[in-house]
Amino acid sequence: MYLFPSLNPEVRRTLEELLRVIDQVFPLPRRFRINLPQDVAELSRLLTSSRGERTDSYLSTKGLLSAYLRYFLPWNSYRLCRLLPGLSLHFAAGDAITDLGSGPLTLVLALWIARPDLRQLPLEFRCLDRSAAVLDAGKRLFHALSGGASPWVIKTIHAPLGAPIYGPKARLVSALHVFNERFEGIPQADTRALQQAADKTSRFLSSLVTASGSILILEPGVPWSGEWIAALRSALLKRGQGAYAPCPHQKACPCPGGKAKWCHFTFDTEDAPSALHILSSAAGFPKERATLSFLFTGPARKAQELPQQGEKTLPVRILSDRFPVPYQSRKKEVHQNRYGRYGCSARGLVLVIEQEPRKGNKSGELVMLTPGSPKKQDPKTGALMVDIPRTVVKP
Fold it and tell me: What is the pTM of this model?
């Protein structure tokens, strides 16, 4: 199964409804709407290249809050709506979900949109964020989107990350776009400091989740995020968690980031709401594709139920887009009609070789390979080279 299936018609309609609800709950006067693309660009600058200029109350500014709700919230919700259906998320009545750095309840909104089968199930959400204004905005949006009759209980906690969260442990603990802001200042060369931060974070996350619960971490698809995800994965596995996704194995991560390749995925955004594409282009950030890094863990014993390496088969998660792989024939002629994609496996990094362009085997798919003999290695990365996989299997 592909990790990021396209939105089905119902989910797409509900995501488009979220955009209408935002305009309904937070109507924008014409003078502010004209400046919306510029506000989006300014907020993007504050969230990326100029983080030092950002204050804790930056979303109290009307223009920036409007930009966050109309641009960042829908795009983050869209990414989650592509991801959540592919994860093994199972809940029972009365389960709790703890969401760290909730912002305007992005996870709650996306779960409501992407998993309509959960809408009538009594669930409790504990949503923590340091901005009371953005938490309140999220509650108002969820109330409007759900029609005000949802059995979901939303508890907001206005506090910084690390503040106590009272009540029974959660079935799911999530942290979306949280740790890149907290630890990105650690130099890439300081792997010891990064691992220490990951160890501390793994203890904190593990203290919040039930023994049968799961942890979901999502970050931007940039090299530092991949390095952080790999370090946190290692720390969580040492604490008894199992890597469910995107990992096809429980061994050391072959994509640790730093100077090496990092774990991230890219998918097209053709099914995103057209109004969102229009705003993105106007702000100077057209989004034909979305990128992310993530980690989904749970009880280690259940992780063993994932596809396992056999005597002649090797599960591989495709990571990269397709790229040409020139090769020399026996006559020393250079040929261009081969293509490769990098993937992750229990044997380390794999270079999957295709003899012609294919629509399948996209970034995020899990494939079963049959490594040949003798084993060949990619001279550039040292990755195991394997010819085109024969089948696609469910993760």
Answer: 0.91
